């Protein structure tokens, strides 16, 4: 494989995970200022849609024809990566800390390896198998908050369960990226999954906003958080992630998700004054 392409993929993955690490902190700040999690997801998706629209407007008819031929897999991608993934993470951060939440994506590389094995019969090395076992032990330690007695009493933070759903969806999405229709370019694909994914978010956004009697962003710094989450972790990171997987594959790219806890922990320690725990 071309060394320059591999180097580019490394750079893409480092930038993507750094932005995702910041996204976890941003979602926690949103929770602290009572910016509702589903509202944050809805407006974040709108930011991506409006930013991409000028680039795809002339190709709408082509994109629609591609969608008609591949609607099942595209809707599946949209629900996994847009509707569920980010919304679940935002909900998780209403009860979990940044550091605890950021540790969960470290289990994703193992999930990607297992899913690739199950779906595509991809080869798994001895070292990868050991990594899966170690990762699973670390995941259980996070769920029980470092206390074995929590396993029996089910005394764990519900946010960790939401984050497990989030990570599971992302692992499955990453494993299936090779199934993206080859006739669609990355920008058009992103527009399509964010547009469709946000349609599935709308009913939950309406329900949440009706309960809270607030349909707009009124919170201090709310729009700054929405713009950051939309431009950085959503638009830029998704694009870089797709490009990297097409170069290196899902299994190798997934290993870089282990950088997310490093980036988010450093940011949260500096700005949110969170503390590292043994679990």
Outline the structure in words.
By secondary structure, the chain is an all-alpha fold. Helix content is 77%, strand content 0%. α1 runs parallel beside α13 (260-271), α2 crosses α4 and α2 (37-56) runs antiparallel to α10. The radius of gyration is 19 Å and the shape is globular. The model has no long low-confidence stretch (mean pLDDT 87).
Sum up the structure in keywords.
13 helices; mainly alpha; 0% strand; 279 residues
Average predicted local confidence, pLDDT: 87
Helix residue percentage = over 70%
Estimated structural class: mainly alpha
Number of strands: 0
Q: Which overall shape is indicated by the principal axes computed on the Cα atoms?
A: globular
Which spans of ≥5 residues are poorly predicted at pLDDT below 50?
none
Distance between the termini: 39 Å
Order of helices and strands: HHHHHHHHHHHHH
Beta-strand portion reads under 5%
Total DSSP helices: 13
Topology:
Blueprint: H1 3-32, H2 37-56, H3 60-69, H4 71-92, H5 98-103, H6 108-120, H7 126-143, H8 149-153, H9 158-176, H10 186-212, H11 222-248, H12 250-254, H13 260-271
Helix pairs in contact: 1-11, 1-13, 2-4, 2-10, 2-11, 4-9, 4-10, 6-7, 6-9
Summary, kept brief:
The chain has 279 residues and is mainly α. It contains 13 helices and no strands.
């Amino acid at each position: 494989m071309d060394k320059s392409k591999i180097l580019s993929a490394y750079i893409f993955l480092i930038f993507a995970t750094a932005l995702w690490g910041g996204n976890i902190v941003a979602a926690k700040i949103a929770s602290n200022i009572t910016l509702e999690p589903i509202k944050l997801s809805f407006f974040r998706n709108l930011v991506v849609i409006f930013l991409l629209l000028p680039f795809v407007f002339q190709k709408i008819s082509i994109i629609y024809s591609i969608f008609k031929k591949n609607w099942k897999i595209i809707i599946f991608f949209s629900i996994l990566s847009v509707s569920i993934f980010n919304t679940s993470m935002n909900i998780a951060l209403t009860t979990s800390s940044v550091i605890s939440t950021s540790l969960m994506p470290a289990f994703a590389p193992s999930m990607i390896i297992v899913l690739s094995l199950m779906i595509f019969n991809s080869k798994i090395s001895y070292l990868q198998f050991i990594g899966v076992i170690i990762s699973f032990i670390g995941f259980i330690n996070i769920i029980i908050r470092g206390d074995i007695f929590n396993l029996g009493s089910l005394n764990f933070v519900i946010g960790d369960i939401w984050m497990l759903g989030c990570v599971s969806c992302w692992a499955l999405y990453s494993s299936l990226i090779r199934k993206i229709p080859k006739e669609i370019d990355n920008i058009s694909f992103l527009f399509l999954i964010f547009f469709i994914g946000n349609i599935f978010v709308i009913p939950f956004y309406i329900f949440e906003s009706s309960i809270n009697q607030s349909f707009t962003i009124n919170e201090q710094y709310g729009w700054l958080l929405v713009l950051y989450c939309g431009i950085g972790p959503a638009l830029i990171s998704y694009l870089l992630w797709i490009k990297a997987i097409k170069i290196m594959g899902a299994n190798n790219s997934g290993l870089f998700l282990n950088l997310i806890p490093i980036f988010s922990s450093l940011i949260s320690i500096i700005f949110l004054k969170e503390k590292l725990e043994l679990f």
